[in-house]
Amino acid sequence: MVKAIRVHELGGPEVLKWEDVELGEPKEGEIRVKNKAIGLNFIDVYFRKGVYKTPTLPYTPGMEAVGVVTAVGPGLTGRQVGDLVAYAGDPMGSYAEEQILPANKVVPVPPSIDPIVAASVILKGMTAQFLLRRCFKVEPGHTILVHAAAGGVGSLLSQWANALGATVIGTVSTKEKAVQAKDDGCHHVIIYKEEDFVARVNEITSGNGVDVVYDAVGKDTFQGSLACLKPRGYMVNFGQSSGTPDPLPLSALSAKSLFLTRPSLMQYTATQDELLATAGEVFANVESGVLRVRVNHTYPLSQAAQAHADLEGRKATGSVVLIP
Hints:
Blueprint: E1 2-7, E2 16-21, E3 30-40, H1 42-49, E4 64-72, E5 84-88, E6 98-102, E7 107-108, H2 115-135, E8 143-146, H3 152-163, E9 167-172, H4 175-183, E10 188-191, H5 197-204, E11 210-215, H6 222-228, E12 229-237, H7 251-254, E13 259-261, H8 265-268, H9 272-288, E14 295-300, H10 304-312, E15 319-323
Helix pairs in contact: 2-3, 2-9, 5-6
């Protein structure tokens, strides 16, 4: 038996229960991993509330962890006991002391990177990688808008885009978060509770608009984000912390020939080659100092409910990590 967080019904943070679960031995193609650090992500909240559907109830949440391989399935090569590995995405179930994982879903963690740092950056970093490098390829001279620029993904997007030579405009909710966003490479920071971000973007860009908007906020920012784009600009909605955006008629895109995409990390790391390349670029940027990972909050895994409450209450900046 191992301890894990279990969810028996959808709802608020209080539905996260600390329980004993059975864990078998790894089968063919699988490994058993003892988790050292577990990343907390907004997607965990979406599943807990039922915004995204889980295949079964009860379930163990969590999409990201770093741990040590403690057993390998029969006939498996390429992974051995003692390896430090990370995974992000499928399968769900990282809020556990130990878990069984498909060997082709994990990536090696460089010895120079602390497991807590790795656990806090693997999912958010791979999200930033596909958003900036593949979904829309950010290059020198581009101007981009990043919502929630002090959040886990927003912080990495801002740093990475700045390193790529883009002009970065970030929106945040407080003065404290504005200081962090500036430190993370935002050239312009908009406190959206104090000023109209559309008007400010218009002013900053001299009425030209931005090349791309990275929007994980959703409902509250969606229409304004479209208004911030230049002709043929890219609207990239990759989350909905404020709720699902209202339906959009296609004609809304035609006035400026806009592109709209709702990407998912799983589609951009579908093959093992894509997964290894994406994670490799993230870890290389952490090692080189392009990405400074802010692990501002750690909680015992047993207190996952409090961590969720703080994340939803916007009390968290940077990354949040659960420690088994």
